[in-house]
């Protein structure tokens, strides 16, 4: 046994370290995904026997106006969340400067990252309150009344997504700070010798070294926007009149409150396919860019 270990430890060691995570991923993520797709082909109340309906849930989904409202809201979330990587990068560049008092500023930007999402939702619910919230205090300075954003069908999704953007920016900032702390000093020194300063240094020396971090930031941001749920649940419960519902929250409502687990699983499957399609497209573009630069 010891001889076998010595001969094969170069691949056995990483396998043994990866095995618990792979087992957990396979049993919790992959198995649950397959089960969700299977349930989406049935009519099921979550308690009794499943009834096979084939693609009926998906055909109903195609004719459901609320589904398209939820899909549109997810697109709005995605567009707003795309601000997180560039803003996070800008903040990381600022707080990474060796200036007195910058550590205090850096810790302030970390605050939304350590707060629970539910807490952020509650805080912004107070901020948006048209009677005594922070937004009303701001509008009161100019002698006007703050709009009731969470009660307005046209602006509620933008307001909730903006609240979710706050911790996402902090998360991207932390990622880029980690990348900035691992920059190649030799490349930076060579850039300075060649006369690179300011924007030229950032564009030609710093940003290329942050490409992997940028990939992670964008991928996590897109997935976070698509699976948005808790902020909607805390701040609006999908209202008013379903105008702020996203796909994840509609799935929750259909499954838990309407006892339509098959229909909810169909929504979850569509959301899963959208995520997989994005990740596959993004990875393809990243690999193509890496090959072109090689």
TrEMBL record:
Signal peptide: none annotated. PROSITE patterns: ABC_TM1. The keyword Phosphoprotein does not apply. Keywords: Cell membrane, Membrane, Transmembrane, Transmembrane helix, Transport. GO terms for cellular component: plasma membrane. This is Sugar ABC transporter permease. Its main location: membrane. Residues 70-284 form the ABC transmembrane type-1 domain. The lineage of its organism: Bacteria, Pseudomonadati, Pseudomonadota, Alphaproteobacteria, Hyphomicrobiales. GO terms for biological process: transmembrane transport. It is found in: Cell membrane. Belongs to the binding-protein-dependent transport system permease family. It holds the Pfam family BPD_transp_1. The chain crosses the membrane at residues 75-95, 107-128, 155-180, 201-226, 261-283.
């Amino acid at each position: 046994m010891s001889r076998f270990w010595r001969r094969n430890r170069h691949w056995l060691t990483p396998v043994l370290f990866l095995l618990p995570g792979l087992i957990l991923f396979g049993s919790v993520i992959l198995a649950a995904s397959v089960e969700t797709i299977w349930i989406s082909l049935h009519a099921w109340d979550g308690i009794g026997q499943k009834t096979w309906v084939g693609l009926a849930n998906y055909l109903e989904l195609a004719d459901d106006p609320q589904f398209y409202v939820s899909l549109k809201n997810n697109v709005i979330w995605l567009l707003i969340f795309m601000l997180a990587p560039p803003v996070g990068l800008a903040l990381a560049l600022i707080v990474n400067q060796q200036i007195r008092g910058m550590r205090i500023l850096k810790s302030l930007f970390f605050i939304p990252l350590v707060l629970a999402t539910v807490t952020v939702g509650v805080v912004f619910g107070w901020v948006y309150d048209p009677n005594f919230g922070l937004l009303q205090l701001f509008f009161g300075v100019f002698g006007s009344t703050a709009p009731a954003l969470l009660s307005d069908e046209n602006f509620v999704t933008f307001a909730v997504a903006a609240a979710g953007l706050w911790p996402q920016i902090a998360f991207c900032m932390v990622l880029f700070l980690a990348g900035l702390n691992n920059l190649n000093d030799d490349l930076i020194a060579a850039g300075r010798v060649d006369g690179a300063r300011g924007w030229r240094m950032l564009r030609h020396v710093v940003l290329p070294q942050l490409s992997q971090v940028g990939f992670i930031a964008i991928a996590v941001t897109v997935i976070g926007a698509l699976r948005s749920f808790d902020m909607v649940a805390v701040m609006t419960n999908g209202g008013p009149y379903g105008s702020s519902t996203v796909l994840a929250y509609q799935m929750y409502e259909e499954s838990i409150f309407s006892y339509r687990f098959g229909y909810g699983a169909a929504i979850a499957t569509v959301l899963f396919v959208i995520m997989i399609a994005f990740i596959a497209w993004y990875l393809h573009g990243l690999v193509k860019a890496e090959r072109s630069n090689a």
